[in-house]
Amino acid sequence: MAQVSPARKAAFFILLAVDRGERHSDDLLRAQSLSKLSAVDRNLATALVLGVLRWQIALDAAVRPLLKKPNARLDVEVLIALRLGAFQLLQMDRIPARAAIDESVELVKQAGHRFASGMVNAVLRKLAAGGKKTADATSAYPQWMVERWTQTFGEDTACEVCRLGQAQPVIGVRVADAPVEQELATAGVELVPGSLLSRARIVLAGDITTTSAFREGRTRVQDEGSQLIGEIAGTGTAILDCCAAPGGKTLVLAERNPEARIVACEVSEPRLHALRERLSPLGGRIECRLADATHLPFEAEFDLVLADVPCTGTGTLGRNPEIRHRLVEGDFARQAERQKEILASALRAVLPAGRVAYSTCSLEPEENEQVIAAVLGATASARLTPMQARLEEMEREGILISGAAAKLNQCVTPAGYLRLRPGQFGTDGFFVALIEKM
């Protein structure tokens, strides 16, 4: 595509792959093909992909009325080119309108839809003539999603969740020690402390993925909330991570429990292979198994089980914006049935007096409180344990920074669950509960 910039070309094909359900945007934006671009083009491609996915509903609402037949079915390549052009015209300040329009037209031509190039040109020119308009964040989400958050959390919180989901999340990293942090600084990566954890840092400038510390596994990109889940789970002598891939929380468990027997399970063979690769620097200390977490092949073997269950991921919409376009309201109940099975299986795998940490990156009660209530209601030998006590213990041990326990205790619900809303401490949204087997 000689007449299309490398950044727009890359963004176009990533958006096509996301639309086809091939991979998540986060995975594609870290792919090797994107790393070959210059830093400027890589940053622009990332901004275009995430921006289009975040504002897709509002972009379509702006573009559709300008078509001769607003409800006409458009080829996916044409629709994505229109969204790319519209996002640049409506949401980006430093992109010349001519570049946004002309390259969108060229993308359509070179994608084999030359007949549609005139329409794309005309629609985008009309859009440009109308000037930039401020879009409300709630217009970028399905209406049913905004309504259910309003009902669950109240209007102000629902609007705040939507607003934060439209912003670029911070890049959280985990550093092993001060020498690694100094090494990153020497490599041009500027870090500041995280909000909660002593080992968490936030990247302010630089590309951590180009450093030897990142390539060698001595530091990794990981949201601080994700790190927090692994830390809350705590310590044990025999530990099971029953839904382990991609392995970030498994690594936290391994760091905190260097002498423990750790088993990491994953139901997908490709994901298990990727998990083994990621954990390989530990020299085989973690046993990786192919296993369905709903039917774990263990009976009272572990004193700690982490059940970080598959979920709808509505706490990560800023990082994974395409989720909002795939979800339907029935997904929450379907996910909950599997989550109940996983939690019940995890409780069977844990020893008496052992504990299970149940977590999701979902905001939805069906996947969180209601799962816990259903399983505990059917299991006489299990009970919730106080989250506040665990948080205060973590601060005494230096895992949490000074004052973090008090901040997190404000996020503990009356029932004893910890719920982090997206962006509350610069993290994604998470839910975690600690359950003791009596």
Automatic annotation (TrEMBL):
<dbReference type="GO" id="GO:0003723">
    <property type="term" value="F:RNA binding"/>
</dbReference>
<feature type="domain" description="SAM-dependent MTase RsmB/NOP-type">
    <location>
        <begin position="156"/>
        <end position="438"/>
    </location>
</feature>
<feature type="binding site">
    <location>
        <position position="292"/>
    </location>
    <ligand>
        <name>S-adenosyl-L-methionine</name>
    </ligand>
</feature>
<feature type="binding site">
    <location>
        <position position="308"/>
    </location>
    <ligand>
        <name>S-adenosyl-L-methionine</name>
    </ligand>
</feature>
<protein>
    <submittedName>
        <fullName>Methyltransferase domain-containing protein</fullName>
    </submittedName>
</protein>
<feature type="binding site">
    <location>
        <begin position="243"/>
        <end position="249"/>
    </location>
    <ligand>
        <name>S-adenosyl-L-methionine</name>
    </ligand>
</feature>
<dbReference type="InterPro" id="IPR049560">
    <property type="entry name" value="MeTrfase_RsmB-F_NOP2_cat"/>
</dbReference>
<feature type="active site" description="Nucleophile">
    <location>
        <position position="361"/>
    </location>
</feature>
<dbReference type="InterPro" id="IPR035926">
    <property type="entry name" value="NusB-like_sf"/>
</dbReference>
<keyword id="KW-0694">RNA-binding</keyword>
<dbReference type="InterPro" id="IPR023267">
    <property type="entry name" value="RCMT"/>
</dbReference>
<dbReference type="InterPro" id="IPR001678">
    <property type="entry name" value="MeTrfase_RsmB-F_NOP2_dom"/>
</dbReference>
<dbReference type="InterPro" id="IPR029063">
    <property type="entry name" value="SAM-dependent_MTases_sf"/>
</dbReference>
<dbReference type="Pfam" id="PF01189">
    <property type="entry name" value="Methyltr_RsmB-F"/>
</dbReference>
<keyword id="KW-0808">Transferase</keyword>
<keyword id="KW-0949">S-adenosyl-L-methionine</keyword>
<dbReference type="Pfam" id="PF01029">
    <property type="entry name" value="NusB"/>
</dbReference>
<dbReference type="GO" id="GO:0001510">
    <property type="term" value="P:RNA methylation"/>
</dbReference>
<comment type="similarity">
    <text>Belongs to the class I-like SAM-binding methyltransferase superfamily. RsmB/NOP family.</text>
</comment>
<dbReference type="GO" id="GO:0006355">
    <property type="term" value="P:regulation of DNA-templated transcription"/>
</dbReference>
<feature type="binding site">
    <location>
        <position position="266"/>
    </location>
    <ligand>
        <name>S-adenosyl-L-methionine</name>
    </ligand>
</feature>
<dbReference type="InterPro" id="IPR006027">
    <property type="entry name" value="NusB_RsmB_TIM44"/>
</dbReference>
<dbReference type="GO" id="GO:0008173">
    <property type="term" value="F:RNA methyltransferase activity"/>
</dbReference>
<keyword id="KW-0489">Methyltransferase</keyword>
